[in-house]
Amino acid sequence: MAEKAYITPNVLKWARESARMSEEIAASKVPVSIEKLKEWEEGTEQPTIHQAETLAKAYRRPFALFFLPEIPMDFQPLQDYRRKTAKPLGTASIFIIREIQQKQSWISEVYEENHDHKLPFVGKYSIKDDPTEVAKDIISTLSIHPFHYLLDNPVREWIDKAESKGIFISRTSFIHSRLKLDSEELQGFTISDQYAPFVFVNSEDWDAPQLFTLVHELAHIWIAESGISNEIEPDIRFKDTLHPIELFCNEVAANALMPDLIMRSLNVHIFNSSKDVFKTAKAFGISSFALLYRAFNLELINIERYRSLKDEAQKEFEEYLLKEEEKKTQKKETTGGPNPYLLRLNKNSRLFTQVVLDAFRGGFIDPAQASNLLNTQVNNFHKLEAQLYR
Description:
This protein is mainly alpha-helical. Helices cover about 55% and strands about 5% of the residues.
C-alpha cells in the first residue's frame, strides 16, 4: 500500500487556489475524482506521497510546503492597473508573475548584499511630471538610437539597451506547451526596484504591440510603480476607463516611440490610406492603432478620420495576422520552430541568465539553485549560454 502524505489540508487548498486552478483541472492532474480532491483539502483523507508530489508540481510549489502547519507568506500580489472589465488572471498569468517575482527577489537580494549602487532612474519622476520629459530621459538614459525605428529589430535594440543599464527584460508567450499566456489577461507587468527592476512582456502579441508594451513598462520603472498592465495600446474608447498610471505610461511610450517633431514632419497624405498608415507604423516599429491615436492627439487628423482609418486598419490587421500565422506554421514545418534554449533565454531574461551563470561558474551558488533559477538542467547550461552570443 502506498505511503500516505500527511499534508496540511488548508495549505493544499491554498496552493490550488493561489494557482487559480479549478478543482476539476487539479483533480485531472493526479488523476482522481473531484470528490477525492475535496477530501484531501478538507482533511478527511490524505493523498499518497506520489499524489501530493504530482499536485506540488502542478501548482508549482515545493513539495515540503504542503507540510507547513499554516498557510505561508507568499509574494505580495502586484498592483492591478488593468480595467475593471479585464479578463481575470488565469493559471498561466499567475505562474509567470510568481516566477518573475522569485527571480527578481533573488537578484535584488544579491545586489543589495553586495552593496551595489541603486539605479538612479528608478522613481526619478512621478505622474505629475511631463510625459514628454520622462520619454526623453528614458531615451537618453538608455542611449537609444535616435532612428531606432529604422533598425531591423527595434524590440531587440530596446531590450539590449535596457539590460545594459541593469533592467531585466523577460519575454515569453507560454509556461509550457500546454499552458499558454493570454494577451487578453495581461500584456506586461513591472516590478520596480532600485537594485533590480524587472519587466515582463507577453510575446503572444506580434512585435509592434510588444515594443509599445516594453516602453510602457519602462515608464513604470521611471515613476517607481510596480503593476500589471493590459490593453496598453492607446484607444479613444478606453481613455476614460484606464487607470491614471496607465494613461501616463501610455503617453510616455507614445512620446518615446513617436516623437512630436517626427510626427509633425510626416507627409499628411499617409493618413488618406490605411495601407500607408500601416507602412509608416511598421517603419516606426509600432501598430497602426498607436500611430492613429498619436496623430489624433496631435490634431494631425480629426475624429472622423481616426475612426474611419481605425476600422480599415482593424480589417487589414486581422488579414495580416492570418498571413503571419501561416508563415509561422510553414516555418515550423520546415525548420522545427525556434530553438527551445533561445525561448528559455528570452523568458529568463538575457541579463538574468548571464548573472546566474557567472554566479554559478564563480562558485557563489550551487548547481541546484542555478538550475532552479534558470529552469534548465546543469548539463544543458552550455546550450543556454550558446544563445547569449547570437
